[in-house]
Amino acid sequence: MQRVLLTAFIITVFICKVAAQKELPDFSAEDFGKNKIRISWINQFGEGCVQLNVQASTDSIKNFRTIFSTESPQLPQNGFVYTLPFNAKFYFRIFYILNGNAYYFTASKIAIPAPLVVKEAVVDKKPVILGDSIQIIKNTGVIINETIIERPPPQPKPEVVRVITIRSNDSVLARLLYPEYKKFKDSITKKTKDTLLVTGPNELLWKPFDPSTIYTPSAYIMINQDGFVKLKLPEAATKKYKLIIFDMDGKKMFTINHITETELIIDKTNFVHAGWFKFELYEDNKLKEKNRILLQQDSK
User: Fold this and answer.
1) Which of 242, 222, 246 is nearest to 296 (CA)?
2) Taking Cα atoms as reference points, which of 243, 238, 174, 224 lies closest to residue 203?
3) Domain extents for the chain?
């Protein structure tokens, strides 16, 4: 009888001791996506914890292996992020070793999706920086400490001022802001025959129209197939014609007065040399045409 009572006493003491022991610490495993798992824990053993290993397995009961061993197991709170080696369902647990060679395994668990953290912005007309942290309680019941900083609104980029330089030969005629240059360009294009040539990123050369560069053959004075100057004046019998020949510098070379033939050939020897020559044709003492002709050099 005494033996039975002693056994009952020992069992009662053991149950009371177990009941009085601290509850084994738990841990959390959060899935942040892209195979990233955050394992975190609270150490209730303090300095009594001499080693803490995090273990993982694709099976909830066996085949666990250590994936992380902390260098500071005595810290009250700690954690790390584990990258899954491949996409599969992993189970995690923590293995504690305490002073006196006592050890414990937590229950294994799989990672659950991490709660979303939503930051609330402060709206104000003026930039405000709040130095103190505030607590935001979400529907999930998680308390999130966030320091809300409203940054100043972005400043508009300074407008680039574009200045166009207008040159004529080696002289600077004007420097115009781009809107003014567009008006100037439209005026040149629509109202004149002048030309604007681009010589650089913001530089143009203004070339006024030179009518001397435009040649229109005369209907009255021409070069015939033999290379001689030929006059063709259908009304020579009834009207008075006069022809004056100049070189290209404007120096008078010779004059033919009182032309009465409707067709007249002028010998090349009167021109001294080949090249361009200017002429003026008068009809009844009035200038009828002012033009030029090209006298070709004789082939040898």
Assistant:
1) 222
2) 174
3) 2-113, 163-211, 217-295
Each residue's pLDDT tens digit, 28-51? 999 988 889 999 998 888 888 888
For domain 217-295, the CATH architecture is Sandwich (2.60)
* Superfamily holding 2-113: Immunoglobulins (2.60.40.10)
DSSP string for 229-294: EEEE-TTTTTS-EEEEEE-TTS-EEEEEEEE--SEEEE-GGGGSS-EEEEEEEEETTEEEEEEEEE
pLDDT score for 150: 59
Q: Spell out, as residue ranges, where the chain has pLDDT lower than 70.
A: 1-24, 116-151, 212, 299-300
Residue 238 confidence (pLDDT):
92
Q: Return left, alpha or beta for 178; rule: phi > 0 is left, psi -120 to 50 is alpha, else beta.
A: alpha
